[in-house]
Amino acid sequence: MAILHPTANTTDRTELVPSHEGPNVFPNCSLFSKLLRHARRNRLAIRDVNLSLEKTYGDILSDALTLRSFIATALGSEIILKIEQGEEVFIGILAAGGYEFSVAVLAVLALGAAFVPMTVSVPVKEASYFVTKSRQPLILVSSEVVELGKSITSFVSQRGHPVSTLEILPHLPPTPTYEPLQIVLSANRRLDDNRAGLVIFTSGTTGRPKGAVMRRAYCHEAALAIGEGYDLDHHDVLLHIVPVHHTTGLGTSFFPFLVAGACIEFKRGSFDPAWIWNRWLTGGFTTFSAVPTIFLRLKWYFERELAPKLSADDLNRFVQAANQFRAFMCGSSALPQPVQDFWTDIRGGRPILTRYGATEFPGCLKVPAECGPVPEGCVGLPVPGVELKLSDGDHGELLVRSPYMFAKYLYDDAATLAAHDEEGYFKTGDIVRRNGPFYFIEGRASVDILKSGGYKISALDLERVALGLPYVNEVAIVGVEDEEFGQRVGAILTLKPNSLPGNDLKLEKLRQDMRKELASYKLPTLLRVFGTGELPKGGTGKVQKKILGPELFPSNWREIREVQRWERAKDKGPVEQGGHLIARL
Ligand code: AMP
């Protein structure tokens, strides 16, 4: 009898049976598999203080499915086909942290596309750069910035890039379309975790912000790794007050908590220490994650507003409120030791858990929750799976290779290649010292990268915009050491003769003019006008920022009459200017 040999065993069942998709079906991937489990357990996912609403994982998944179908319609079949074929399609999200943002993110990921978070304090011109650079066909817009969304689309469309907007909130039904039991994961092959999941625009040393493309794995695998050192789980409740278009608000304070099944309470708007302290008093949190400037301003509020005015008993209530948190986490720039000491002291000896990483390599060094005391100034220990090299033994530029790294800079192979050494390590540009397992950040190799209020800012980006102003002859942007911001953005300018009355420029005007092109957090907060001639140059004919910066902005710059400075309107409540990870979100 002839034996029937099956054909070669190479055909996957998914090639034989109909594709499994539908309005209630999420792609087959770890992120949605995890979130669905939380939905089935009816866990609380998001509290949105500004919208006064609370949503479960079931709600958010159902709403993401609903929004996904509106997005698909708005994109049209041609773009949907591209996505299905694995092509990269980038969809903008113009929303501060909150429920609308969260649903939009999940809807885009559920579609297999990638999202581009954009700050709501972005000027139209800067947004248009993000939109065109990532070739967005669509921007999802939160209810608070509908007008801004319209301005961006008309600006960009007039310049030949067709883009439309979709408002998020009006497309969410009053009650969820699907119950958790009705939501399923596709039986198709797993969606490739290497696909682009999102783009974070970040400042580099070469001028305009580069789009760091993160894989979909960023939203799940990397998030698990980042959350691991903090022992996150579904009992956790996070107060989320940092912007979500930055790796701190997204990679450290959004996805890790979401995949852990925790609850995220979003509060957006201007940074308001009084609100935060009073909210802490009401209680219900386990974790708080922020940048050093926030911890400093909360410390100031305690010392200046609470301690002098309250009775010992009342003050103790605030101390207890700070102690409800099992973990305080901080990264993005150096945490000054007095700030660390203050919080360690009022929290019964529990230090802030510091971490170090960057947009391109999130979660690289960390002080884990279970770590115990580390030497003063230590930023952390290597995260499992991450490889680190120092250019000169136990000192020098830090080079990083990790499974959680970015995939590439958007449409810029040359920059992607240039960012790595010959062994494929990312060149961080940070000067670091190692002592046993402990790492200490000493500073940056380039004077052209500033860190202000947690944000990475390119001096060249600002210089480009300043040079475009009709009255600016020459400009040098320098970082000026500062307790509050880490670094302040200092502008040194010479003016074109007779371009301004009395050859006099006020910082206020410079900020206003630059604000048309740059988000507020990038604007100079210090100015020194150096007449109408030339800026002093070194032997090579270049401005030597390392010399000129400290010369014109010495440590006692506050006492120098020629130094103009910008301050937050501290006593006027929430500040309009905002922007430093802490101000206007
Ligand atoms: P970003 O891509 O905006 O997150 O900026 C990354 C850069 O922030 C790093 O290359 C460092 O220069 C700086 N940075 C991040 N975390 C820390 C930290 N804990 N201490 C000092 N600098 C930090």
TrEMBL record:
GO terms for biological process: fatty acid metabolic process. SUPFAM superfamilies: Acetyl-CoA synthetase-like. Keywords: Membrane, Transmembrane, Transmembrane helix. The keyword Transmembrane helix applies. The keyword Lipid metabolism does not apply. Pfam families: AMP-binding, AMP-binding_C. The chain crosses the membrane at residues 89-116. Residues 462-542 form the AMP-binding enzyme C-terminal domain. One of its GO terms (molecular function) is medium-chain fatty acid-CoA ligase activity. Residues 83-410 form the AMP-dependent synthetase/ligase domain. It comes from the Eukaryota. InterPro entries: AMP-bd_C, AMP-bd_C_sf, AMP-binding_CS, AMP-dep_synth/lig_dom, ANL_N_sf. Belongs to the ATP-dependent AMP-binding enzyme family. This is AMP-dependent synthetase/ligase domain-containing protein. It comes from Exophiala bonariae.
